[in-house]
Structure prediction request, 344 residues.
Amino acid sequence: MSLPSCSVVVATFNRPAGLRRLLESLERQDIGPDAFEVVVVDDGSSDETWQVVTGFQAPYRLRALRQRNQGPGAARNAAIQAATGAIIVTMDDDVEPAPDLLRVHLEAHAAAESPIAGIGVFALPAGAKLAPWAEWEFVGLQRQYAAMLRGDWAPTPRQFYTANSSVPRSAYLAAGMFDPLYRRAEDVELAYRLRDRGLGFRFLPDAVIYHRPARSFDSWQRMAWQYGFYDVLMWRQKNRRHVLRVIGHEFRHQRHPLLQRAARKLVGRRRLLYAATAIGGRAANAISALGARRLTMPLYSAVFNLLYWQGVAETLGGRARFLEGLEAWRQPERQPSQLTEGGR
Prediction:
C-alpha cells in the first residue's frame, strides 16, 4: 500500500524536556525518517524550548517556527500552513508516539474510501504513576475507548484530540483551521466544522501515544471551568445549540441524583460552590494519599462536574439561566461526553 505524504505538527510552549522526548521518539518511527517531516511552532516560550528545537539534530526533516504567544490553535495554524504533507498528524509536546503510530494513521487514510479524521489513543508508559485527578481523567478515556471498540457509539467530534489525530491538510484549510479565540476545546470546535464539511471520524485503537500527564490539581480544576465556558461559547458564537442539549441530557441521565441535587444547590453561588469543591478536592487528595484511590474517583468526578457547570452558569449569565437551561435543553441522542467524563 502506497502511503500519503505526512507532516507531524507540534505546538509547544515552555516544555523543553517533553519536546525533546517527543523529537527523539519520532526518530524511531518504522516508516523511516524520509517518509515524514516535523513542523514545530514555539508559541512564545520564555525558557530554552526554542534552543531545544533549533539545536536538535534529527534524521527526519525538522522545521522550527516561532511566534508570540497566541495559544495552541494559532500555533497549529502556523504549522499547518507551513507543512507540505498531504496528511497532518498532530501531537502535543508532552507525548511519545509508539514506533508504528505514523504508519497506522497513514494506512487508515490510504484505505479510506472518503476523507477521514483519524483518532488515536492515549496510553501510559511502563511504570508511569499518575496524580489521582489525572488517573480519573485516564480512566474516563479508557471507558470511551472500550465503548467505541464495542460499537456502543461511533466516534464524534467530541473525541477529536489534537494530541493524537490525523486529518488531510486540504480538509484543515477548507474548514478554516483552528479558531485562535479558543484556548481550550479548540480541537472539538474545529472538529464540528470538519464534520459539517463531510469529514468522517475513524477510531484507530492501534495508533498509540504514550502520555505522562503532569497537570497540577489547580490546573485540573481550572480546566473543568474552562470547558464549561467554551461549551457555551460554541453555542453563542458558532450556533452549536446541540452542545447545550448534551449538557442537559448528561445532567439528567448520566449524573448521580446526589450530584444533581448538589449542583442545583451550589452552581451559580460562587462562594458556596468553590468552598464545597475545595473541601471535596482536599478530601479526595487526602484519601488518595492514604492509598485508597478507588474511593476518590466519585469525589474527583463531583469536583470536576461542579466546576464545569459553574463555568457553564457564569458564561450563560448566572444561576437562574443555568437552572432554566436544565429544564429546556434536550438531547435524545446517545452520545459520550468528552468534557465531563474525564475526556482530557
About this structure: The longest helix spans residues 293-316. Residues 6-210 form a domain with the Spore Coat Polysaccharide Biosynthesis Protein SpsA; Chain A fold (CATH 3.90.550.10). The chain has two domains: 6-210, 217-328.
